[in-house]
Amino acid sequence: MNLLVIAVGRLRRGPEADLLTAYAERLRWPLTVREVDDRRPLPVAERRARDGRLLLDATPGDAHVVVLDGTGRPLSSEALAEHLGRQRDSGTRTVAFLIGGADGHDPAVLARAHLVLSLGPMTWPHMLVRPMLAEQVFRAQCILEGHPYHRA
Ligand SMILES: C[S@@+](CC[C@H](N)C(=O)[O-])C[C@H]1O[C@@H](n2cnc3c(N)ncnc32)[C@H](O)[C@@H]1O
């Protein structure tokens, strides 16, 4: 199973990128980041719709799609592990995690989701969401393997 993070915006070198790399290197599932970025000025709704099209165009047709959004389901780490374990066991080739930009997700993106995942009711900067997600996926891997990194 491959993990594909598709995100609006470019992550510059810095602590967020270092943390993302650190967790990605500890994952057995290969994790790739695909960035989409078009900064031409548009009114908010049009910008959101454009970013949504870019995210969806970058999403493989057969992917299991997890959209990161504050309005989604606040799964426990164990529940996320179970969710990913089910994808692994059912032969899913790619799990795609979609992270929005400053304006959040277009309804078309939410409609494509198999799971809308919340990292809690607070709004996090999209660049921080990448390493936070990578940590939770690494934690999920540890839960599935019975590794002591995760202590319930
Ligand atoms: C700065 S936030 C967007 C805020 C936007 N105003 C909104 O209402 O969604 C950028 C992206 O980070 C991710 N994100 C931020 N906070 C999140 C949370 N609590 N749970 C899940 N994803 C979150 C989402 O993918 C979001 O589209």
TrEMBL record:
Gene3D superfamilies per UniProt: 3.40.1280.10
EC number: 2.1.1.177
Binding site for S-adenosyl-L-methionine: L68, G100, L119, G120, P121, M122, T123, W124
Catalytic class of the enzyme: transferase
Keyword vocabulary terms for this entry: Cytoplasm, Methyltransferase, rRNA processing, S-adenosyl-L-methionine, Transferase
Molecular function (Gene Ontology), one example: rRNA (pseudouridine-N3-)-methyltransferase activity
GO cellular component: cytoplasm
Compartments, record wording: Cytoplasm
Record-linked Pfam families: SPOUT_MTase
Record's catalysed reaction(s): pseudouridine(1915) in 23S rRNA + S-adenosyl-L-methionine = N(3)-methylpseudouridine(1915) in 23S rRNA + S-adenosyl-L-homocysteine + H(+)
Entries under SUPFAM superfamilies matching the protein: alpha/beta knot (SSF75217)
Family matches, as NCBIfam families: PRK00103.2-3
Subunit structure: Homodimer.
Family named by the database record: Belongs to the RNA methyltransferase RlmH family.
Role this protein plays: Specifically methylates the pseudouridine at position 1915 (m3Psi1915) in 23S rRNA.
PANTHER family with a match to the protein in the record: METHYLTRANSFERASE (PTHR33603), RIBOSOMAL RNA LARGE SUBUNIT METHYLTRANSFERASE H (PTHR33603:SF1)
Full protein name: Ribosomal RNA large subunit methyltransferase H
Organism: Roseospira visakhapatnamensis
Gene: rlmH
